[in-house]
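> @MW can you paste both from yesterday?
MW: sure, first one:
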Amino acid sequence: MTRDMSDVTRAKNGRPVHHWRRDLVELAALFTAVAVADAVANLIGHGPDGPALLTASAAVLIATAGFHTWWSRRHGHAPPRTDTGAPAPAGATGTTGPETGAGGDADGATTLWRMRTTVKDEPGSLAALCTALAGRRVDILSLQTHPLPEGTVDEFLLRSPGSLTASELTREVARGGGAGTWIERADAHDLVDAPTRILALAARTALDAAELPLALRQLLGRCTIRSLPATAAGAAAPTGASGRADGALEDTVMRLRAPEGGVITVERPYLPFTPTEFARARALVELDTLLGPRVPRSHDVLTLPEGDAITVRRAGTDDVEAARAMHERCSQRTLGLRYHGPVKDADRYLNHLLSPRFGRTLAAQTASGRVVGLGHLLWDGDETEVALLVEDEWQRRGVGGELLARLVAMAVEAGCESVYAVTQASNTGMVAAMRGLDLPLDYQIEEGTLVVTARLDTARPPAAPHPAHDGQTAERATRD
C-alpha cells in the first residue's frame, strides 16, 4: 500500500505521525479478504466442478506470469525515462539493458579519427556530410574549415563505433559528398581545441628558439622540416603561390623565411597544406623572428664521482669561441672520432651545431668557466641525432654520460620516437654510453661507420649512463 507523502514527512518529536483511521481501514480490508477467500474455497471444494476450476485457475496464473515476464523483458531495453515520462537525457544510464557509449558499440568501444575531406562550397553540403556520419553513429567532436577556391576542406575529429573501419567511414563520407578524403587514427592529445594548442605552441617557441621546429611539427602533423642557411637557399627570400615575399606555399611543400636569413622548408607528401595551415606556420616563424636569439639560461651543478664539480647548461651561438678553444685542446684522435672529414675543418661546424635553429646544445663547464664537453640534440628532418664531444682530459669521468642522459630526456620531452648516434665502429666509449641508457638499441654498420639508434617508446625515463663511459659521435660532413 502507498501512503500520502504528507503522512510520511510530517513528524512529531522526530517520529512519523500515524492516524488510527487508516489502521482501522487496513484491518477491515484484511478481514474482508479472508471472508472472500473462505467463500471461494467452499464453492470450489463442495461443487461438482471443483477440480476443473482449480486446474483452470492454475493455467490462468501460469499464463499471466509468462505474459508478465515477456512484457518486462521487452520494455526493459527501452531508454530510461524521467519522472515526466520523457526519454532520459544523454549520458543517463538505466537499470536494465546493455549500456552503450556515445556512438559506440554495445560494449562501449569507440575509436578516435582525424579526417580531412573536401566538400562543395554551397549551402547544405556540410549538412549532408554530417547526416551521412550520423547514420553510422559517428560523433563529431570538433570541426575546422579551410576555404579554398575550388571548395572547402573540412577537418574533423571523430568518435566512431569501434567496429567501424577507416574504409567504411571513407565510403560513408563519399556518399555524403566528400572527396579527396584523408583519415588516420587520433589519440587523446587531439581532443585539445585548435586555438588552445596553437597558443601553447607559441608559448613554447617564445621561451626557447630551439622549439620552433618541434612546434611546427606538432602544428602540422607528420612532416619533414629542414633549415637551410642563406648561402644554400640562394640568399633570396622564398616567394611562390602564397603571393607573399616571406613565404611560399606549393601544395605539399611550404617555404618560410628563417629569422637569420635562410629558409625553413616543411614537406608533407601525404597531405597538401591549406592556406590556413600556412598562415599559422608563418605566424609562428614571425614570432620567433620578433623575439630574436634566446636560449634558456638554466644551470645544473653536478659532482662527478672523482669529486670534481661541473655545470651543465644550455649553449648557443654565444659559446662559439669557447667551443673553438675546446677544439684546440682536443687531440686529433678525439676530433677524428667526433667529425667526419678533415679534422682541420671541425671549427666550421660550430655555428651550425650551436644554432638553436638546428637543435639543442648542452655545455659542460668547470668552476672556472672553461667548456670541457658539448652535447648536441640535432633535428635531422623527421629524425633526431645525438652527438658528444668531451675534452681528452675530462674523458672517462662521467661528463659524456651526464650530457647524453640529459639529451635523451630532452628528446623524450619533445615527443621524439627515437634518437640515433653516428660514430666509428672502433668508438667503444660511445657504444657503451648508448648501452648505459638502458633503452632498446638497433645497430647498423656500413664501411666502418656505426649508427646506433635508441628507441624511446618506454614509459620510464632513461637511466643515466655509467660514469665510466664517455664517448664521441661522428658528425656528417655534409650537414653544413
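MW: second:
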Amino acid sequence: MFATPEFWVLVSFLGFVGLVLYYKVPGMIGSMLDKRAADIAAELDEARRLREEAQQLLASYQRKQREAMKEAEDIITQAKAEAEQLAKETRANMEAQVERRTKLAEDKIAQAETQAVNDVRSTAAEVAIGAARRVIADKVDAGKDAKLIEKSISDLASKLH
C-alpha cells in the first residue's frame, strides 16, 4: 500500500497542503485579495469623484456657453439696432442734404431767371433806344432840328420866367 504511486501522490499533496498552511499562504492570498479589493474600491471611489468633478466642470462650461451665446445674441441685437439707427440718421442726413442742394439749385435757377429777365430787358431797352435813334434820325432832318431847338429854347425861356 505504501508503494503505490497513488499513495505517494497523496502524501505529496498532503505535504504540499501542509506546507502551504504552515507558511500561511491562504492568509497571504486572502490579504492580497483584500488589498486588491481595497485598491479597486479606492480606484472606483476616485473614478466616481473624477466623474462628479467632470460633470460639474461640464455643467459649468455648458452654463458659460449659454451665457456666451446670450451675450453674443445681445451684442448682435444691439449691433442691429445701432445699424438701423445709423441707417435712419444717414437717410435723414441724405434727405436734408438733398433738400438743401435742391433749394440751392432752385435759388440758382431763380437767380439765373432773374438775371436772364434783366439781361433781356436791358437788351430790349438798348434795342429800343437804338431803334428810336434810327427812327428819329430818319424822320428828323437838319432844318426841323433847328426849329425844334429854337422852339425848345423859347419854351424854356417862358418856363423859367
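> thanks! The longest helix spans residues 25-139.
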